[in-house]
Amino acid sequence: MNRREFLRFLTAGTGAAMLGSNVVKALASPELPAPLRTPAAAADRDPVYHGLNRWGFGARPGQADLVRKMGLEAYLNQQLDYQTLDDSDVERLLGELITLDMTAPEMYAVGKRPQEVIVELIGATLVRAVYSPRQLYEVMVNFWSEHFSIYHLKGQCSILKTPDDREVVRPYALGKFRDLLGASAKSPAMLVYLDNAQSRKEHPNENYARELLELHTVTIGNYTEDDVKELARVLTGWTVRPRTGEYLFSRAVHDSSSKTVMGVTFPAGGWDADGEKMLDLLSRHPGTARHIASKLLRRFVQDDPTESMVQAIAQIFLNSDGDIKTVLRAIFALPEFWNAPPKYKRPFEYVISLLRGFDAAVGGTPAGRRNAVGDALSVMGHLPFNHPTPDGYNDNGS
Predict the structure, then answer these.
(1) Cα(78)–Cα(84) distance, rounded to whole angstroms?
(2) Which of 93, 170, 180, 189 is the most interior residue, by most CB within 10 Å?
(3) Is residue 21 within 8 Å of residue 308, measured between CB atoms?
C-alpha cells in the first residue's frame, strides 16, 4: 500500500467509523533544567526506545539506530524545535484534503457537507501521527485536543473544529499556555460546543464558564458555584457570527455590570477586557499549574504521579509563565521519567504505533484494510474528536 492509498483508506475508514525529588528541588528553581541525562537506574531498558515511545507514537523501522547515533538529547532538542523538521512530504500528502485549509465562511459558502469535513480532519490527524517526523509535536497536538476537547458531532462543530485544529491547537501546542487558552476561549468551535455562543446577559449560559474552570484551568476545589455564575456573566457576548461561524464579541448581549470572580472585582463597563483579565488570572493560577502538571505527568510518566513530581513541575509551569517546552524538558529530566512503569497504549496510540512499526507497508487493499483502522478505532471508542463530553478521552491505563 502506498501513501496515497493509505490516505484514502484512512479517510474512508474514518468516515465509516464516525457513523457507526533533590532533583525535584532543583527542577523547581527558576533556571532551566539541566541537559538531558539518562540515569544509571534505567540501565535495564533501552532508553532510545523508551524515548521514542514516550515522545512520539512509537519507532519506525531503523529509527532507533538513527536516534542512537545522533544521541537522545540531540533528538529531543530536534523534536522540541519541531519547525526545523521537514514535514513537506506529509503536507503534500494532505494536499488532497481541501477542507483542511478552508475557513468556516469558505466552507459554508460552497456548501461543504459536514461529513466530508469531519472525515478529512480525522484522516489528516491519523496521517500526521503516522508519517510526520514531528512526533512530539503531534503528541502534544493530541494532548491539547483532548484537554480542550470538542465533540465533532455537536451542531456546527463538524465544520468549526477544522479551523480550531488549524488556528488554536496546532499553532500553540508547544508555545505558551496563556496563548493557547486565549485562542481556545475565542474558538467558534468551543463557543458553540459549550453553548457560550448562546449566552446572553438576560440568561447567561454557565457551560463554558464551568468547564473553563473545572477542566481547562484551576480545576475543582479552587472555585465556587458563585464563581461559575459570575464568570458566565463575564463571558456573555463572546459569541459566533451565525452566518459565517467567526468569533464575535457582541456588546449588545454582554452583561456590562460589575462582577466578582475568585475574589477579583471587575467594575462595570469592562466589556471583553474583563474576560481577557480572567484568562490572565486563570493561566497563572497555582491550581492551573498543578492541573496541567498532573495531566502531562500522567501522559508522559505514569498514571499516578507522585506529589513531589506534581509540585516540581507545577512550579516550573509558574516560573516559566506556562512555557510548554520548558515544562516538558523538566518532565523529561526527571529520574521518574526514565524509570517510569509500563503504560498501556490507548487505542489511538496502539493503532498508530502498529502502522509506524510496519512502516504502513501492510498487505491488503485499501478497502480490505479499512476494518483494521477505522473500525478498530470505532469499536475501541477512540476516534479523534468523537468524545461527547468535554473531559476528553481517559488517559489512565486502568
Answers:
(1) 7
(2) 189
(3) yes
The span from the CA of 132 to the CA of 128, in Å, is 5
Question: pLDDT tens digits, the chain, 398 residues: what are they?
Answer: 455 554 555 555 444 444 333 333 433 444 444 555 554 445 578 999 999 999 999 999 999 999 999 999 999 999 999 999 999 999 998 998 999 999 999 999 999 999 999 989 998 998 999 999 999 999 999 999 999 999 999 999 999 999 999 999 999 999 999 999 999 999 999 999 999 999 999 999 999 999 999 999 999 999 999 999 999 999 999 999 998 999 999 999 999 999 999 999 999 999 999 999 999 999 999 999 999 999 999 999 999 999 999 999 999 999 999 999 999 999 999 999 999 999 999 999 999 999 999 986 433 333 323 335 766 788 899 999 999 999 999 998 65
Integer Cα distance of 97 and 219 in angstroms: 37
Burial grade of 96 (CB within 10 A; 0-12, 13-18, 19 or more): middle
Asked if 218 and 288 count as a contact pair (C-beta separation under 8 A), the reply is yes
C-beta separation of 282 from 181 below 8 A: yes
The distance of Cα 292 from the centroid of its chain, to the nearest Å, equals: 12
CA distance 228 to 233: 9
- Cβ-based burial of 179 (10 A; exposed 0-12, middle 13-18, buried ≥19): middle
Report which residue type is found at 74: A
